[in-house]
Amino acid sequence: MEEILIEVKGLKKGYKKRKTKEWVQAVNDVNFTVKRGEILGLLGPNGAGKTTTIKMICGLIVPDEGEVVINGITMQKNRLKGLEHISAVLEGNRNLYWRLTARENLEYFAGNRGNSRKEKASEIEELLHEFKLKQKENELVSNLSRGMQQKLALAVALLADSDVILLDEPTLGLDIETGYEVRQLLKKISEAGKTIIISTHDMPVVQDLCERTVIINDGKVIADEKVEELMNLFETSAYVLTLGNELTEQQQKELDVKFPMNELLDGMKLTITLEQDNDIYDLMDLLKKENTIIEKIDRTTINFEEVFMNLIQEEKNHAIHSIN
Ligand SMILES: Nc1ncnc2c1ncn2[C@@H]1O[C@H](COP(=O)(O)OP(=O)(O)OP(=O)(O)O)[C@@H](O)[C@H]1O
């Protein structure tokens, strides 16, 4: 049986906004598990609660309720012991010393977990080469580009030999080339059998790396599925209709209410995701009512970004329905 390495149980965290004194329930009963060797994508719109969740997993933030168990150790009871299993790369690369050089950072962190510098010397050399940091090894971190800093932060995380690596937005703000490079490095890290949780908005990261995603919205988990299953789910319900004439304003309005997951290209190509297969008949009625000609109906392929947007949209609709 596959071993569960991380258990996130009933996590809750709220904040009082300093300025407005308004209460924000950043994380509201989040539960999920991660198996050893799994790469989990933690997704959600801005402000959904991803960073707060990651910080609770590594013990940087104390939850109001709930707990995180890593390899049998409850972080909230025994953080230091738990931290022996975790490396985290948080936003702003806070796991680096900005006044040390790239190499000094690697040497410092190598020594940090009880290894001698000698023991880690060849690994440091390898990492400097593999992460293309060798030329800049003697630069202060504060003088490195954001991409270089990010790569160094990953190298430092790797050096710790932890079972679990937590990554908060590892490709944020990187140019396309460096983003690609970081993605390749992450792939290698994952192939080395590490258990990884990545919070990201970067869909290529999800498609390239993650087997499973937990999607958070308003502090709650709204999906916890294998990426492939989510894709299949939406693939079978996504259609492209080629229309022979333009929709009336009234039709467009009705469409947005009944089938909010729609997109009209050039006034004639309607891409639509239906929640249930039977919805196709309602859609036909809506179109026929105003004598819209349907020239062609195709099932469409869908990318993960669309899957993600659809899930968030569905959740919004449910929230609206449950208020009404
Ligand atoms: N220290 C804090 N004080 C007050 N509110 C906070 C604090 N940290 C987070 N929040 C609020 O909690 C909510 C969740 O924030 P969090 O950073 O966890 O979301 P996120 O999903 O990581 O978003 P993003 O993708 O924008 O980083 C937001 O509304 C945020 O404004």
UniProtKB/TrEMBL annotation:
InterPro entries, alphabetized: AAA+_ATPase, ABC_transporter-like_ATP-bd, ABC_transporter_ATP-binding
Residue ranges annotated for the ABC transporter domain, each copy included: 6-243
UniProt entry keywords in alphabetical sequence: ATP-binding, Nucleotide-binding, Transport
GO molecular function, one term: ATP binding
Pfam families, per database record: ABC_tran (PF00005)
Family: Belongs to the ABC transporter superfamily.
Stated name of the protein: ABC transporter ATP-binding protein
Organism lineage string: Bacteria, Bacillati, Bacillota, Bacilli, Bacillales
